[in-house]
Amino acid sequence: MNIVSILITAGLVGAVGLLVGLFLGVSDLFLKVETNELEVKVRECLPSNNCGGCGYASCDALAKEMALGNAPVNACVVGGQPVADSIASILGKEAAKSVRRVAHVRCSGSCDVALRKADYVGVNDCRYAALSPSASGKGCAFGCMGFGSCVSACSFGGISIVDGLARIDTDKCRGCGECAAACPKGIIEIVEYKSRVLVNCVSTDKLKEVKNVCGAGCIGCGVCSKICPQKAIKMENNLPVVDPSLCTGCGVCAQKCPTKVLLPLTVQNEI
After folding, report:
1. pLDDT in tens for each of the 271 residues of the chain?
2. At a CB cut-off of 8 Å and minimum separation 6, what does 247 contact?
């Protein structure tokens, strides 16, 4: 290859590079996305868990809606009050009270009270076990299987399996809801930390069927509904449903419950 060919090749490469550079520069001018400075500042305050606990797909999506005024400053359940205060300051809004939420396992069927009907052999994960005919091996088809899908889903180390039952450490739980999404049985719910009374069972079976498989399940007797002075409890599908807007936390229902299915959240955490 002679010097002329080399120069021609170099010139063509340089020309193509120049044209590409000009094209990219012009494209940047027309396609450039304007950056919302408030959105950037809000995003820096968010914890980057992208858990969806706020109702948005990611922290980026939440920051955008907050900056536009479409989401409240206290929407981040993981960040809590400190994050809410910081974002309120950035957006020039009044600080809003952040309601702390935590996970609650609606089951009391630990190994010492739940009947075992079979031994499950397979992947140690609730989502896989749910596909097996024997499931967890427990007699109750509604309750916690105890293989820890929720444990692996929790980003904060707030769940452990004790005696075949998922337990929530409310000191670590941030109420993001990842554990609830991972539970194939749907027995984990996100509740206010100050919830007065919660129901520790999801079985809709009647008394005899419940007693045959679990010593701590709700037998659907309805005593709690009948004696509640505030009429805050009603029975649906053999289970008590507590109306938190009416419940005063008097504790009468918990005292009279024959299987101790109704307990305050603070007591449950100590069990």
Report:
1. 567 676 667 667 777 777 777 777 666 666 655 668 999 999 999 999 899 889 999 999 999 999 999 999 999 999 999 999 999 999 999 888 888 999 999 999 999 999 988 888 888 899 988 888 767 788 899 999 999 999 999 999 999 999 999 999 999 999 999 999 999 999 999 999 888 899 999 999 999 999 999 999 999 999 999 999 999 999 999 999 999 889 988 889 999 999 999 987 654 444 4
2. 196, 197, 230, 232, 233
- Ordered structural domains, the chain, with CATH: 37-91 (1.10.15.40), 101-270 (3.30.70.20)
Query: Which residue, 185, 226, 181, is CA-closest to 203?
Result: 185
Say how far apart CA 117 and CA 251 lie, in whole Å.
35
Instruction: Name the residue type at position 137.
Output: G
Q: Could you give the CA distance from residue 225 to residue 203 in angstroms, rounded to a whole number?
A: 17
What are the helix (H) ranges across the chain?
Answer: 3-31, 37-45, 59-68, 80-91, 126-129, 149-153, 178-182, 207-213, 223-227, 252-256, 265-270
